[in-house]
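Rotation project, supervised by the postdoc (A.L.). Task for the rotation student: set up a whole-complex structure prediction and record inputs and outputs verbatim in this book. Inputs entered:
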Amino acid sequence: MTLKVAVLGASGYAGGELIRLVDDHPVMEIAYLGAHSRAGSRLGDVHPHLGGGARRLEPIRSELADGTDIAFLGLPHGSSWETAHLLAEAGVAVFDLGSDYRMDTPERYEAAYGSPHPLPAELAAWLYGLPELFGDTLPGARRVAVPGCYPTSALLGLAPLLSAGVISGPIVVDSMSGVTGAGRGLRADLHYGAVDESVRAYGITTHRHRPEIEMGLEAVISVPEAVQFTPHLVPMQRGILSTCSATLTAMGAIEPVLREAYDRTAFVDVIDVPPQTRWVVGSNRALIHAAEDGPTGRAIVTVAIDNLGKGAAGQAIQCANLALGLPEASGLTAVGWLP
Amino acid sequence: MTLKVAVLGASGYAGGELIRLVDDHPVMEIAYLGAHSRAGSRLGDVHPHLGGGARRLEPIRSELADGTDIAFLGLPHGSSWETAHLLAEAGVAVFDLGSDYRMDTPERYEAAYGSPHPLPAELAAWLYGLPELFGDTLPGARRVAVPGCYPTSALLGLAPLLSAGVISGPIVVDSMSGVTGAGRGLRADLHYGAVDESVRAYGITTHRHRPEIEMGLEAVISVPEAVQFTPHLVPMQRGILSTCSATLTAMGAIEPVLREAYDRTAFVDVIDVPPQTRWVVGSNRALIHAAEDGPTGRAIVTVAIDNLGKGAAGQAIQCANLALGLPEASGLTAVGWLP
Amino acid sequence: MTLKVAVLGASGYAGGELIRLVDDHPVMEIAYLGAHSRAGSRLGDVHPHLGGGARRLEPIRSELADGTDIAFLGLPHGSSWETAHLLAEAGVAVFDLGSDYRMDTPERYEAAYGSPHPLPAELAAWLYGLPELFGDTLPGARRVAVPGCYPTSALLGLAPLLSAGVISGPIVVDSMSGVTGAGRGLRADLHYGAVDESVRAYGITTHRHRPEIEMGLEAVISVPEAVQFTPHLVPMQRGILSTCSATLTAMGAIEPVLREAYDRTAFVDVIDVPPQTRWVVGSNRALIHAAEDGPTGRAIVTVAIDNLGKGAAGQAIQCANLALGLPEASGLTAVGWLP
Amino acid sequence: MTLKVAVLGASGYAGGELIRLVDDHPVMEIAYLGAHSRAGSRLGDVHPHLGGGARRLEPIRSELADGTDIAFLGLPHGSSWETAHLLAEAGVAVFDLGSDYRMDTPERYEAAYGSPHPLPAELAAWLYGLPELFGDTLPGARRVAVPGCYPTSALLGLAPLLSAGVISGPIVVDSMSGVTGAGRGLRADLHYGAVDESVRAYGITTHRHRPEIEMGLEAVISVPEAVQFTPHLVPMQRGILSTCSATLTAMGAIEPVLREAYDRTAFVDVIDVPPQTRWVVGSNRALIHAAEDGPTGRAIVTVAIDNLGKGAAGQAIQCANLALGLPEASGLTAVGWLP
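Outputs recorded:
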């Protein structure tokens, strides 16, 4: 069996990782690479690390995806809804790494992003593809919104604890991300000279991943839970560390709950030391460490993922494996690149 | 007037900064450079950036400080108490950048560091040298414990708000520091290969700067306040960003309170955008940004300082200026190095 | 005495350094900050590290410089010739950090940059401002072309040796620069993600600093000498290391020649160990190390400077000091920022 | 078929990469992990990125390798000769990543390393394992000295040109390496604070890879050729760029010669733009760019490899594949990690 794959948004960081992973996947095969501004370019010029070859990026047009089994979309916010919809209607299994279909209701979408969804009736048809938390829904799915990188890290750390009732608010998530999380586009604040040797918070109170985290937690506990979320830009390429805290409702419970939650998962490990992001960069792994602070009665849970791996391309492949009945770990690795 | 200065611990990062600042100070002059393992070395070999010259590091012996007016001590925890005491008894104005005299009571010292203080009766004689918060006590002082880098950043952001009653717990401080904060000693976890391209939390719940932050806040509000403090190591040389949060007790109050608190200070600025650490590296400046989060009812205050400037050597000079009746900003700058 | 200074190109990296240095200069004072695209901006928004204040950037118009004594121009190649000429004609002492007036003849300009000079008759009126090599010409000068960063490093290392006849070609210069050397403009190849964790050569055989190096050497030995020059981009902010090599014509001579050449200079030191760029970043210092390789009979001279210091703003101030009869080191430092 | 593999020196950077590659190899399987100081440790503690598992590092004792088919040795200089010899005598196919058996004669060994070889008669039995240049000798080999990282890059760029007679001396090689090339041991000059934001040359005229480069070139042209070699440390983890230059003996010949030389190789590509190290990090690929400089009549060849890939572990696997009759690219990739 070979599954033909379209990667749309092939020129971005997530697109490059998707190509790398699909090329390495035992049953998937690239059939169509689509890009906007870099359409017409040789893959080797856009992603020199992927090597040469005759492959070229083509324009993004849904009809070019005819005959593909799977489409991965790595497009900017607001750019994927139409193509994703057309492909799904045409029977392609669509895994959208963007945010267009992540919210579960039109109301939440509008509250999160500030404008109405262009196809509000479609939102309910899309699943939120975080396998370790909502994986039961994925077999057979053909419309999957792959979670954002920050929400993946925060939800993996907090959802089991909130679900088990061992923590309560106020919930504080301070996350630190490498620069690839901001994409490959030219921006003054992503110039080497503006990032190197510095750390800064951004999007304080307003980052669009915050309502996504809140939605994910609500999906688990069925009541709204506000989350204080502050992302930070750190001078490195890849990796996210989320330091999540909440009030403990019981002592001694959080590590057992987390270990139980992830005991049978392929990619999430609860470990005894605070994780470094570099241990997971290049892999689909998430590392979680839990601590309890007596004086404040707070839980401190740190979660490390690769923002382009478990936070994007790796998770998309994992969702596709589950949706299409393949082994969950096909084409994925839990081994990172650097000590 | 010339004030003769001893810098003890001259081979470390803070020591190097002290030498640089004293050399540039209008009325201070280096009279004695003391070091442990590097005693006997040429300054130019220990700190090549400071240039050549015939100056040599000598051993650390209190009698070698005879005739000096001021001593700055940049020694590891537990290493300064005896020398600091002897020098102060001999009439030298002592500014200890270490933690030996920061705690106000023997009980708090033991709780913080796990062993009894060797000279418990002396603790009360030492002032905690954070000029913007406790500067009134400094004129005439001859025994000053200069605050730690993390506590300086957290206290500058939180103390005025807590004092004004506009925030309450739970207080969460997630700080990110460059590597020089960990000192110049050889450690496997400070090898370039262990730091570069990675971020990690460390000292979760146990870092010794946490009781120092709690003491500083208690000094302001007269009741104990527990603080959840998590430091992170970020791949950069210098700079600390502390993201501090607390529950708001009123809306719209925190920025005015902070602006009022620092309106007449030379080195603390409340600004409209979240600060980058790089804007303050090389200076004695602290930059503070305040935000209020409606859904969680929380204050988010980010503070950027140079861990070796306002967080160490700069603050020590500032304390000495005030203690000795010099203009507060003598020999210090609010101008950083990098855009 | 106060000298009024215009800084044109105030929004760039060199512009920011010029402002920092002039603000710190004992007799210079900023009177006019000019910029193109950022005209109208507050200085504190363009260079947050320089602190607040009411200063604003104005447009670049030569009449706005009326009444200034000195103008420093930090503009892109091809952008300074007209303004520089008008200001010089108006009696302002002009120090152009750009390349428009560096070449000594119209022929060399055209060969170097590929198009004729717009004011060819003016070229002869401009001096090449490298004080340690050509400083005798600077007193009284009002038209000074400040050398490029790479040529400064290469010429300091090679010119005295070639002049003394102790080396001969083939001359090979492999230079490594931090990213600020490429300026602050948005470019895909200067995105953090394109620079971090990588090194690359660029401008092989074609970099426009190569004819400038060749001109500088020819000025010293009066015959043309071709130089193989290859610049490299290294993941750091500031600093240039040039590794220069040439065939030895005598053994044991190069270090004495270099020590003799720089014995009485304020900012150039010949040292016993290969210099690190970080030792000079933030200063106007150049560090030089010389080695002789027996088996190949080659000299290997490594030179470290700060590309924004001795390679740009610092050298411009040094030239202005000499031109205007001030002490050469006024407002400059030989002390760097980092061990 | 499964080949049992011993990795000795498993705790180092090269050791970690060997484990990663062997774990991914279709027919190789780790049977024994040996280490000195970290013997007894869990693999997951020594190389957290490799994931958990029950594997432990054992002491390095040749008898523990009984029953293994292949041994990879990643030990410091001077530490592998005895173990390598014992294992080879016992019939194990040994691939020594260290320098103990790289020199072809006792005289050259002593000249290169300053002391006599402990088993001089054995040197002739070891092959120098650079497959693209000397691969014909590898099938059936059981004693292979894997080249150093710098020599691999320099020889790939220079050997075909020298062999074809299109270049001649003086040959200049200026190489820039990431920090992992210096190993994982604690050293003051590898502290993050000593490496970050700086570049420096080291081992000028004396680096022990220089005689290895000269030996490799002599093997190709049968006459000695002195090489001026200067390595530089660059603030990044992995990757080597070697900028190699030599006098052209003909114009227009070097790129065709290089393309012809590597046309049929799996891992060496001649490309049209100067390579970045990051394009090859994580892969076994070498990228080569060639330029001719008219004015100096010099060839400038830049070569990028991953010092831990093609410069160490990847090349060792490639040698083992060839020696043992496996497909040359088994378990290896030409795809890197970062754009």
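Student's summary: The domain at 150-307 of chain B is CATH 3.30.360.10 (Dihydrodipicolinate Reductase; domain 2).
Supervisor addendum: The mean pLDDT of chain B is 96.
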